[in-house]
TrEMBL record:
Belongs to the ABC transporter superfamily. Residues 24-246 form the ABC transporter domain. SMART domains: AAA. The lineage of its organism: Bacteria, Bacillati, Actinomycetota, Actinomycetes, Micrococcales. This is ABC transporter ATP-binding protein. One of its GO terms (molecular function) is ABC-type transporter activity. PANTHER family: TEICHOIC ACIDS EXPORT ATP-BINDING PROTEIN TAGH. One of its GO terms (cellular component) is membrane.
Amino acid sequence: MTDEAIITARDLGVRFRRNRGSRRSFKDLFAGRARRTAPGEFWALRDVGFTVRTGEAIGVVGRNGQGKSTLLKLVAGVLLPDEGSVRVHGGVAPLIELTGGFAGDLTVRDNVLLTAGMHGLKRREIAERFDDIISFAGAGDVIDTPFKHLSSGMKVRVAFAVVSQLDEPVLLVDEVLAVGDKAFRAKCYRRIEELLAAGKTLFLVSHNERDLRRFCTRGLYLDRGELVLDGPIDEVLERYNADHPA
Ligand SMILES: Nc1ncnc2c1ncn2[C@@H]1O[C@H](COP(=O)(O)OP(=O)(O)OP(=O)(O)O)[C@@H](O)[C@H]1O
């Protein structure tokens, strides 16, 4: 691990509406920052700040709906904060929703090519890694199948296989891995260990304590959108368990 900060998050806030699809009305766009929380709105995250050094492995814990996925989406840059900022020095390989940002109508092959290309892999590098990706996923039979027709488990297999082959320095893994079967999960965990050994930075959202202790050195505990504790993973889990006994 080096002392270099790879992620800096300051005063992060994300506001959602409880009962409407769209996050912002046209009128809101002109109301500016002075606008207070309107009725029906709530803060999914508020005043969240932390710094991550290269090579750290961070476990994000909290009950359902407390802002964990929202935080990962901010780090991935797929969601913009309403307050504060998050800066990542380098690219992010996100495995954060079942679809992994894949295009449902495109085939597995085209999704692999597109994702690898979007993350800056050269044509030759993609060609070299393509077979490994397909074989890691066990997706040889579905290469030309539209992604949307894959089973949930197979979607995750393909997404993990690609994301873990990108050269980005930061890897984000949401609970999606829980969908994979036991043998595939074991394979993913070995791959995550290799990536950590290679100096990558990891964010892992999980409700599985064993996984969190296995991979993570540090924990972020979110409750009602607030960062309750940022510390060594053992301390964070102890506090979380004390607050919410099974
Ligand atoms: N696009 C959205 N519009 C409105 N509310 C949302 C949106 N996305 C998330 N939320 C809400 O924000 C809160 C935080 O959600 P988030 O998915 O970050 O929780 P989480 O801690 O990851 O939960 P889980 O453990 O269940 O995955 C929840 O109340 C959720 O319903």
